[in-house]
């Protein structure tokens, strides 16, 4: 249990009305929000039972691939730790990810981008954090993809994250970007975050210490639920 939750810091989150991100306008509130103190229903539950995970659930290179094959693309490891506002690890938390394939195409019926689907890549994974809050996925680096927000706009490579902490108050849905991607500075979604330090916390760093020679490049992405060093919450995942 986390105890009383620290209120979110409004200043590091995007303004609720961000017309540069066109599809967010209709879902932005028209009236000022009303703040309530957290109560036991947000602070202590609900929690999930022990989820039975498959052996390959955190291995997107293999979990959709036909026998003897693996997903096409730059092989990467995404790993880090899940922490709370007091820098304590959060064990036994469910982390789910979804992403486009190496060409920037989602396996989704509404994704009509002309990049090819990879028959050996599904794009979804999940894992449970360890006793020290650690987690890791193997996957391919997702491609950038265009989206109809303006005449020529491209999402930076990103992986969507969903995290169930130990209470509803810790629920987090966010996106992870990759160090050095020039599209981050041009992305209307990423740039809705007014605090540069907060945006930087959504960028995974190249991690040569965990990179596997002749196998996969590692990126480190630590996640903090609630509090001063909180990883940015989105109002809503952008969806694709
Ligand atoms: Fe996306």
TrEMBL record:
It is an enzyme of class 1 (oxidoreductase). Residues 44-227 form the Intradiol ring-cleavage dioxygenases domain. The keyword Oxidoreductase applies. The keyword Oxidoreductase applies. InterPro entries: Intradiol_dOase_C (IPR000627), Intradiol_dOase_core (IPR015889), Intradiol_RC_Dioxygenase (IPR050770), PCDO_beta_N (IPR024756), Protocat_dOase_b (IPR012785). GO terms for molecular function: protocatechuate 3,4-dioxygenase activity. Residues 7-38 form the Protocatechuate 3,4-dioxygenase beta subunit N-terminal domain. Its EC number is 1.13.11.3. Keywords: Dioxygenase, Oxidoreductase. It holds the Pfam family PCDO_beta_N. NCBIfam families: protocat_beta. Belongs to the intradiol ring-cleavage dioxygenase family. This is Protocatechuate 3,4-dioxygenase subunit beta. The lineage of its organism: Bacteria, Pseudomonadati, Pseudomonadota, Alphaproteobacteria, Rhodobacterales.
């Amino acid at each position: 249990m986390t105890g009383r939750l620290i209120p979110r810091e409004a200043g590091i989150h995007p303004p609720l009305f961000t017309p540069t991100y066109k599809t967010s306008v209709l879902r932005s509130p028209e009236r000022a929000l009303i703040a309530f103190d957290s109560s036991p229903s947000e602070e202590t539950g609900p929690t999930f039972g022990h989820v039975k995970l498959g052996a390959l659930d955190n291995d997107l290179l293999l979990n959709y691939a036909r026998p003897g094959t693996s997903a096409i693309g730059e092989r990467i490891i995404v790993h880090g730790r899940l922490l709370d506002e007091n820098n304590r690890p959060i064990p036994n938390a469910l982390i789910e990810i979804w992403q486009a394939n190496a060409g920037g195409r989602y396996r989704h019926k509404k994704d009509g981008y002309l990049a090819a689907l990879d028959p050996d890549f599904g794009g979804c994974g999940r894992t449970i954090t360890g006793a020290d809050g650690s987690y890791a996925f193997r996957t391919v680096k997702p491609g950038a993809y265009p989206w109809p927000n303006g005449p020529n706009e491209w999402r930076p490579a990103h992986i969507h994250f969903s995290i169930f902490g130990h209470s509803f108050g810790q629920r987090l849905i966010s996106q992870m970007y990759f160090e050095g991607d020039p599209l981050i500075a041009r992305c209307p979604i990423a740039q809705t975050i007014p605090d540069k330090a907060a945006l930087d916390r959504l960028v995974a760093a190249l991690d040569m210490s965990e990179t596997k020679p002749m196998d996969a490049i590692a990126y480190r992405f630590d996640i903090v639920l609630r509090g001063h060093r909180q990883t940015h919450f989105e109002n809503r995942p952008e969806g694709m």
